[in-house]
Write a structure and sequence with these properties.
The chain is of the alpha+beta class. It is built from four helices and seven strands.
């Protein structure tokens, strides 16, 4: 009798396992680079606020050593004069500095309470270690930069995409 109850319960659990509600994608995006616009400040949509930042100039330095004069050996293989090497260093620009625009929370939203909530959200993710003050200070901006840099926006200015992912801004239904 107990065995049939266990089997019936297991069958019911397996059947209910297939009863999952509709899957809704969380309001996050894989990367913020899709929201970046280069050049002039974009117009619209109505009520949208924009912020800009400069992407960093990235320079690659390559250092190579090349043999200038080979070593000289005696008949037994002892080194008479060591080899002489020269060092050649060259640099090249990997990425030019450029201005990028992105949607941002509007200034009227950026209150002390908003900044405090932002600090708590960053603190919960281990990015902000300071006290929750509600001030947009250097440690807060550095935490914003670290959060956004992993998503393609290396900026201390809070983007709307980051605010949405942190749960600080509403996500439109079409974004889901």
């Amino acid at each position: 009798m107990i065995g049939t109850r266990v089997i019936a319960c297991m069958g019911l659990m397996l059947a209910m396992g297939g009863c999952v509600g509709p899957l809704v994608r969380p309001p996050s995006i894989d990367g913020f680079t899709i929201e970046l616009v280069e050049g002039e400040q974009p117009q619209g949509p109505a009520g949208a606020c924009w912020a800009s930042d400069l992407t960093p100039l990235i320079i690659e330095t390559v250092t190579e050593q090349s043999l200038s004069v080979p070593e000289k050996l005696d008949a037994v293989g002892n080194v008479l004069t060591p080899a002489v090497y020269s060092t050649n260093t060259r640099q090249r620009i990997v990425q030019e500095r450029r201005e990028v625009w992105f949607r941002a929370p509007c200034p009227e939203e950026l209150t002390i309470a908003y900044h405090a909530t932002l600090q708590r959200a960053l603190k919960a993710r281990g990015l902000y270690l300071g006290p929750v003050t509600g001030a947009m200070d250097a440690p807060t901006m550095e935490a914003i930069r670290r959060f956004q840099a992993d998503r393609g926006l290396d900026s201390p200015v809070l983007s709307l995409a980051a605010a949405r992912e942190l749960g600080l801004a509403a996500t439109a239904l079409q974004d889901l």
